[in-house]
Amino acid sequence: MFVALEPRRLYRQAAEQLRTLIEAGEVRPGERLPAERELAERLGVSRPTIREALIVLEVEGLIQIRMGSGVYVSARSNRQPEILAADDSDGPFEILQARCLIESAIAEEAARKADSESIAKLNSILAEMEGSLDDSHQALALDRAFHTAIADMIGNSALNRFTGLIYDKRLSPYFTKLASYFEGPHTWKAALEEHKIIRDALAAGNPADAREAMRQHLTLSQKRFSESFGEEPTRND
Predict the structure, then answer these.
(1) CB contact at 8 A, 226 and 48
(2) 201 burial level (CB within 10 Å; 0-12, 13-18, 19+)
(3) Has domain 92-224 been given CATH number 3.90.550.10?
(4) Average pLDDT in the 214-235 region?
(5) How far apart are CA 79 and CA 161, in angstroms?
(6) How many other CB atoms sit within 10 Å of the CB of residue 67?
(7) How does residue 233 score in pLDDT terms, banded at 50, 70 and 90?
(8) How many Å apart are CA 80 and CA 11, to the nearest integer?
(9) Comparing 228 with 197, which gets the higher pLDDT?
(10) 9: which of 126, 172, 173, 235 is 20 to 30 A away, CA to CA?
(11) CATH code, residues 10-73
(12) What is the dihedral of CA 57, 72, 29, 31, to 10 degrees?
């Protein structure tokens, strides 16, 4: 039986309810879980929250996600799945939303401080990123370098460090697993083009355009991670 969830770390609470359902045998090994939309309705949460919960269970080995087919309970084995500690880790979509709010403001201020040297640094990062779209690890490192370089324009070391820290939250096991499904050369190419729009606004010294370009970039990043694992067509929550 499902119980409506309280609004704190919803994805971990949702994962716990789904884990209980599986361990009780209500969905047997090899069977497909209900569609994301149905799970979201029954638990009273958004589909992105369900997606984050499913990622937790896959990291634990309880389920298998088959893109375009659905989510299936893993076959039983002699090895018990490792249940991850119920911590207060931020979910991937929480991280992206936080970055959108914070980095948009950073880009706005950076546009007031940008000079030829800082723009040249962005150009160098973008040129290297353009040649690394097939290498996710390198593209990720260059993506981080781009965002921290913008924060660095303001000349506040604490702000630069904070930007790096919040970016590095996407290296969690949950975010890494989510990225393994939705990130690839096509998404890095899209991010590169969005980075160029941000660079252009910064180079023009236009705070409003820089803020909007960053907001649009990180909003689209959230959208790229919001596809469905299942068979039904994607619809925004």
Answers:
(1) yes
(2) buried
(3) no
(4) 77
(5) 41
(6) 13
(7) very low
(8) 22
(9) 197
(10) 235
(11) 1.10.10.10
(12) 140
